[in-house]
Design goal:
By secondary structure, this protein is mainly α. Helix content is 38%, strand content 0%. The chain contains two helices and no strands. The longest helix has 22 residues. The protein is rod-shaped and about 95 Å long.
Length: 69
Amino acid sequence: MAKQANSGNKKPGLKKAPEKKPLIDPKYKNPVSTAIIIIILVIFFIVNNTRKEPQSGPYPPYYSKEKAE
């Protein structure tokens, strides 16, 4: 007798594991991650350009303060 393949046979009572549902639908994963990165970069840009730090250090040689203003 020929040996039958076991691929089509299922054991009775064997339950299929529930599928894991992803947090973000794969169809929208790239646009969502791109939007998050752009928002973070905009926040860093705004924070970096709104801080006021005193200018310190020596001026370059032959620098005239009257011409700069």
